[in-house]
Protein: Glycine zipper-like domain-containing protein
Amino acid sequence: MESQRVEKLKTILEEFRNTVDEKDARKLELGKCNRIIQKLGSFSSECEECFQHFIDLENHIIQLVDKVDELIENDVKHHKQKIDNISSHLQKQHKLVTSGYYLSIYMSIGTSLGIVFGLLIFDNIGLGLPLGMGIGVAIGAGLDADAKKKGMTL
Ligand SMILES: [Zn+2]
Structure:
């Protein structure tokens, strides 16, 4: 994918974002959409599926821009499905993660382990729970920061 084409689509999306209100922008996950365009653009030279997704998303966004004044619930739903579909491809095939992905995993692992070890070692959930959760948060946040640094965050 030529980077010019990627930049052009990002500009179109940016302009679209300026025409909708904050609430719609959030509903349509335009921030995520922007990151997805970037990722599809960078993977499309080696991944046929990303290339197809890019073209599909490009057409879809141009359509959205066309009817910005008459967006209905169905358009939002349709849009979300597309974004979800593409995100799952990016996560499965290209090992990308959503932001806060590791935090949520490690926090729940830490919390469960904290309860178990709290009971086993300290005979006290109140002691184990915050400790386990704290360690989980520390590990998860570290991994999230690392993924972000490596550009692996969606
Ligand atoms: Zn791909």
Q: What stands out?
A: The pocket of zinc ion is lined by residues 43, 47, 49-50, 89, 93-94 (CB under 6 Å).
